[in-house]
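Discussion board: Methods & Data

I've been asked by a reviewer to show the raw model output for two of the constructs in my manuscript, not just the figures. I'm not sure how much to include, so I'm pasting the format here to get opinions. Each protein appears as its amino acid sequence followed by a line of discrete structure tokens. Is this the kind of thing reviewers expect to see in a supplement, or should I convert it first? Here is construct A:
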Amino acid sequence: MGEQSCGKSFMLNHLVGTTFDGAMHCTEGVWMSLVNTQEYIYVALDFEGLKSLERTPQEDMFLALFNTVVSNLILFKNQFTINRDISTMFQKFQDGAKLFESDPKIFQARLCVIIKDVPKVDRDDIIRVFQSKFDRLVSEEGEDNFITKMYGSGLDIIPWPVFGDIAWFKKLSFVNKKLEKQKVKYENAITFLQDIKVIMAKLKICDWDSLDESLIQIRIATLKKLLPTAISYGLERKDSVTKLLLDHDTGKPIEDPKTDLSDILNNFDSTELLPDANIHLYDEYVSFVQLSEDLREYFDEIVQSQEETSDEIKWYENFGKFLNYIIERRISRVRKWYAQNTAKLPQDNSNVINGKYEMEQKLDKLALLWTLCGLTCQQCHLKCIKNFNHKDDHDCLTNHKCNFPCQFVEAHNKKLIPKCIHKAGHEGKHICKKIKHLCNEPCDLIGKRNCQEVCSKEIGHPDGKHLCQSTRHYCGVSCSLSTHTVKGDYRCPNKCIKSYEKPHSSHRCENRTCPIQCSILNCQRKCQSNDHFHSYSGFLYVDHFCGNEHHCHELCENDGICKVVIEPKKQLQEPFTKYIQLSERLRCSKKIPPNESKHIGKHTHNENGFHFCEAQCQFCGYFCTLPYGHEQLHNTRHGFDSNMMQIKFSEDDEDNISEYTRADGQGKFTLCNMHCKNLGRHRHIDYCQDEVICKSENQRHDIKHIDEQIQPNPDRPKDFISHKLFWERTGFKDPYPEQQDFAEFDNDRHTITCLNLK
């Protein structure tokens, strides 16, 4: 980059083989070109000439800042014969150095200042002159000088031979060597594209926080956006285009390993199981019965048929192991996907921690969804294979019929043996209804739970009591468990399985464990107690804990601001969207120990972590960047201010305003500290703080009372004040304390006057 019409595009084309067209000052903004070599891809950026009439000084500064942040070698061409004083040229670099946080990751560039058309005899003198100017700048600015802050790889001053001289082309090899020595800045094209988008966006919205923090926020926001699909399908995208889980730093897919059935179930033949990707495992709007249908059919067809098994208990155990493997595999892949995409991020960052917590919460929901109920089906004797938290009747999701043949084989004379008439999973022998093998009269206890309905005694048995094969007929009254918890009232929905014949006052269902949810907010796990009546332990209040560690859900209690965010705000009657800063209170990062309802100590998002000062610039609204409770003046990297007006006074009457105009003069937003920078010597208008002193003319030397009424609030008296006093009254550090003419108070009516009052 550099001044207009100094041959920037031409030099770049010869240096790295690009084909930029630099004729007739046609470069506008920034043009990009890629040059492929065997080792690298070179990205060449050709910038519009600085100090253009079409660009404001602020836009020039943003272009220079963008170049510095993106590049690792910057060629700044300067027409030495036209402009010997480069201090003004590089002041915009100095302004840019005050905006972005000093970040070694982004400020790695080497700056090569190229002075155009230097005769051989003048080269040493020119290097000495330029070096002295840079040395003076470094001395005046101290640690804040732009060279030290923005160009981590150093500075070169290169006098370039006159065009047409063969030395002009030989000098290119010198710069090429500089380029080859620079470290590769971007690992791959994915990283470059991501960084350049973020940098452009940060400049657009005046977000001066570190690039790393922005990249962290964007990466976590991306993962959160993709997380529901990743958990539901094991994919990042599932619509017209399918996209696998990817490592976003390398573009490589997350491994989906092949698994053999014999690895998870004993005594089964070797069969390759279906891969994880594309199995639908989670959907808030689909019932578990519908969601599990495909996997139930797959297990029935490929692994073990429920109709053909002779051991229902073993089938249920195998089905549970199969589902558990499917879910654990999905959980493992999603965790690996998140871990690989956050591996390069600081693990103690609050965004990374909260993102991981949100992922674990959703994975817990997935695991709990696929935890089978296991209690007895309402219509037969098999186990319920709905999820453990279902609210409706227990159901084995079969036809509830016993699929085994009649055991009285001899009675059928080798004919086709009919199936058993009882319900699936019943006790005793399998009996058909084609031939009367047993009494078959109605059971005296028909209607009781667990009754098989027909007498299983021999035909013509002498006693008059008809009983079925069930060894116990259940009581069937609702379970006695009923209690109040921190999450509301709970009543066990199951029925008593005690024998109806034995008198009992407490009714107990077949569930032996405590079914009540953990009392910690948002935890959906069940209480860890193995006592179903844990709530009746004799204490006035009983805690129900799952036994796991929990994240605290309270907000940080520390003084100050946890996090500053930037939000768009549409301006009324303006074609612009202004970006403003808002404060955000973060969630406590402490963990609640197992079997405790809260952690020790106050809530904080980061133990002994940084909290911003709560003061805001009254013009741009940006927060002070110093820590809460600091003693020095507030300081910030300012944002846009659209309210600053420049006013002109009538030639006839210096107290009579003849014109109000936007201070930037072009209808564009300007950083509030840049208004003063762009105007040179000027004065401000503020509300009068002591009208009596002003009228007696005993006020400070840099204050002059205004007798006329001025908008806004014309009834409130106002004063002319100096730039220095203007910033003193804001409580914020003067962004340009080194400008001596800003400190002086010039009260001539021709002095530029700024107005920014509410």
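Construct B, same format:
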Amino acid sequence: MEDSLRKALSQKQAAVDAQGGAVRELKASGAPKDAIDAAVQELNALKLDKASIEKQLQAALTDGNDNALSRDAFRQALVNTLERRLFYIPSFKIYRGVAGLYDYGPPGCAVKSNVLAFWRQHFVLEENMLEVDCPCVTPEIVLKASGHVDKFTDLMVKDEKTGTCYRADHLLKDFCKEKLEKDLTISGEKAAELKHILAVLDDLSAEELGGKIKEYGITAPDTKNPLSAPYPFNLMFQTSIGPSGLSPGYMRPETAQGIFVNFKDLYYYNGNKLPFAAAQIGQAFRNEISPRQGLLRVREFTLAEIEHFVDPDDKSHPKFFEVANLEFLMFPRGEQVSGQSAKRMVLGEAVSKGIVNNETLGYFIGRVYLFLTCLGIDKERLRFRQHLANEMAHYAADCWDAEIECSYGWIECVGIADRSAYDLRAHTDKSGVPLVAHEKFAEPREVEKLIIAPVKKELGLAFKGSQKMVVEALEAMSEKEAMEMKATLESTGEVGFQVCTLGKDVTITKKMVSISKEKKKEHQRVFTPSVIEPSFGIGRIIYCLYEHSFYTRPSKAGDEQLNVFRFPPLVAPIKCTVFPLVQNQQYEEVAKSIAKSLTAAGISYKIDITGTSIGKRYARTDELGVPLAITVDSTSSVTIRERDSKDQIRVSVEEVASVVKEVTDGQSTWADVLWRYPTHSSASVDE
């Protein structure tokens, strides 16, 4: 609708301009008054039509802006609550804080701890994974091999006068969004151009990004000063290991490399058997150019990563049938390219149709869906988006992101990638240690092996100092490339050959390399395993969980809105509260006795013996997301209140800890216990 209105407005503006020109010509030529009056009347009618279209377009844009305003108001209410109740706060607050760094307070730590405990249960225990814990400080050579030293960059621009730095793509994105949302005068073609830029923003080179910033006259947001051309900025925090400064290192940008470099030992620990998975939870560090969006883009964060090593020739999974019937929102690349929306798909069908590359990748997509929905993520605001071809690394077989919708839009919270054998091969090449697996044959097999034998003497004479790079490139050829080279050499005696590390083509002659195939008997197959990698941004998941769990409801008097977090008991920071109804020595003794039994049962609780009204105490703990509240109103029995329904049951003092444990451990639902115990209703304890 917006596009058609912009087109109509552009056409109407052209008509107004043309009619205005006609009126001026009539007046200049001394035309009769009747003719001029008729032309002016037509001009006024066109202006009215234009004003009507502008009004419709403004209404269409305002709908989106109103939604944005309501999202902003919701987010502000949420963030105020989170900071006031100490879920998280800006780090070093008394020194005005540092962008992109946050401290988790007591309830935030408890939520995070519960999320990670469930992650371990759902993945590490369920799949019998090998958990490791590697250092945050990583030697440069490791990250050189992985490609991070050369390629882990974002494009940055600087305010040419103040030196303030900005992320180039963010400036262009903000400009395009503001134009589309607020500028009525842009044509349909211009609007389409801006939308296209937003769609391909991640693919723009430094030159293209700089060209657009210049073309649109984008300046520094704070000062309106001109900006420098975009240039790459490495996002890793650099350090040196030891006092000499001769051993450079970095704070790790991900936890995965620690697993890859330990593959050989982990493979041995696992009995030299594939498949197996290793897991790690730990801190990662990225020196973001302009952190924003609270917990979603920070400079230090917790990652939980899995590296599932599998035979590249067999990516089936024995437990895939357990998730094959799950149905949820999927957004394959075909739908994205054709401008369609995400649609509900059955996971088994997506794998069988080849939309998802293989069963193991599909299995982890299913397990991630179950993990997120069990935490309390709304399944209607969760989708799995497939990477477009231009988003994927050249070595990746397939990649999907679990994206969660929040007030900032769709946010990538989990990446699930089939990274092929890239990482293990990269570390094998750099370290010289073969990170490979073995498959022993029951009977020896006769296989045809490709033999590429570079003649180093001839290559040395021809390429001198570049000889090593040419040799490595020749040895790295695929069978198809090698056989094509052999055929060309036999027919013409020389062939052009691209050496990527030199960045140019060289001429290879028949004397420089021998290519042949030999039949050999092999007792085992040696291969580099493929890696399926689910990578979880824990802070992002927790923030989205806060948004999906937060709501307000009116107080009993109706004079204020009360904040509530509907956390599932699984992740709630405190499982229950204990309140003596009134300040009374006997009730307080019962409350302390219940507290002891809760501690013995391993249940987190908060006891409140203040004289505040019970309604206010309920409201305080609802705001922390505490699912159950125990009110001591007699010495023999107590009431248990459920947070969201506000329903209450009466339970004996002796049973209360076991009932709470049953519900908070997930053995029973609140509905299950509601019919087993008498309900309780009292005006004195209602909010």
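Answer (T.O., handling editor elsewhere):
This is acceptable in a supplement if you add a one-line summary per construct. For B, something like: Residues 33-84 form the longest helix (52 residues).
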